[in-house]
């Protein structure tokens, strides 16, 4: 350790020679000890430096894994949220399109009705009625050939004979 220099009394101050030499020797010894302590610290740091470096690398790897796992978790959570939001927006948009489509269809139907254009329902009802009338006509004719087939047969010669099948065909159609 560093030696302390004690103050000397007035008698010893008179003899400055031996005390200066003692002071210089003490300073040299202290400087030598400080130098050796620095070298020891440097040597220790070199020996322990590799171990400390490896420990720091291991700690860094662990920290990187933790942060990467946390980031992946946050990314997964954000992806789930965005997917839910996209689904919600898609369903809302679909609902709006359906409403718009219904409004358009209603307006077109009203416009066609005001123009007197029959609807598909009206045409289907008429087709069913025509079919029913055809069955009734066929029943009334006793299952004979339809009026259209009678007209297709050869008519007898002469104007009067040519008009007769038309009248029958008309009566059958009525």
Describe the protein in words:
The protein has 5 helices and no strands. Residues 158-174 have low confidence and may be disordered. The protein has a domain at 17-117. The chain has helices spanning 10-14, 16-115, 120-140, 147-152, 159-173. With 174 residues, it is an all-alpha fold.
Order of helices and strands: HHHHH
Q: What helical percentage do the residues reach?
A: over 70%
Main pleated-sheet profile: none
CA gyration radius, whole angstroms: 59 Å
Q: How many angstroms does the end-to-end distance come to?
A: 139 Å
Shape field: rod-shaped
- What's the quaternary structure here? single chain
Q: Mean pLDDT score, rounded? A: 78
Proportion of strand residues: under 5%
Class from helix and strand fractions: mainly alpha
Write the layout of secondary structure elements.
Elements (H helix, E strand, L loop, with lengths): L9 H5 L1 H100 L4 H21 L6 H6 L6 H15 L1
């Amino acid at each position: 350790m560093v030696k302390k220099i004690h103050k000397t009394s007035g008698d010893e101050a008179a003899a400055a020679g031996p005390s200066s030499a003692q002071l210089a020797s003490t300073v040299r010894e202290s400087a030598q000890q400080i130098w050796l302590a620095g070298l020891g610290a440097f040597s220790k740091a070199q020996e322990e430096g590799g171990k400390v470096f490896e420990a720091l690398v291991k700690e860094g790897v662990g920290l990187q894994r933790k942060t990467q796992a946390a980031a992946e978790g946050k990314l997964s959570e954000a992806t789930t949220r965005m997917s839910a939001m996209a689904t919600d927006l898609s369903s809302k948009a679909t609902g709006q399109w359906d409403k718009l489509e219904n409004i358009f269809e209603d307006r077109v139907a009203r416009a066609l009705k005001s123009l007197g254009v029959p609807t598909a329902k009206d045409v289907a009802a008429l087709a069913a009625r025509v079919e029913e009338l055809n069955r009734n006509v066929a029943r009334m004719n006793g299952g004979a050939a339809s009026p259209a087939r009678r007209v297709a047969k050869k008519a007898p010669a002469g104007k009067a004979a040519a008009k007769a099948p038309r009248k029958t065909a008309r009566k059958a159609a009525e």
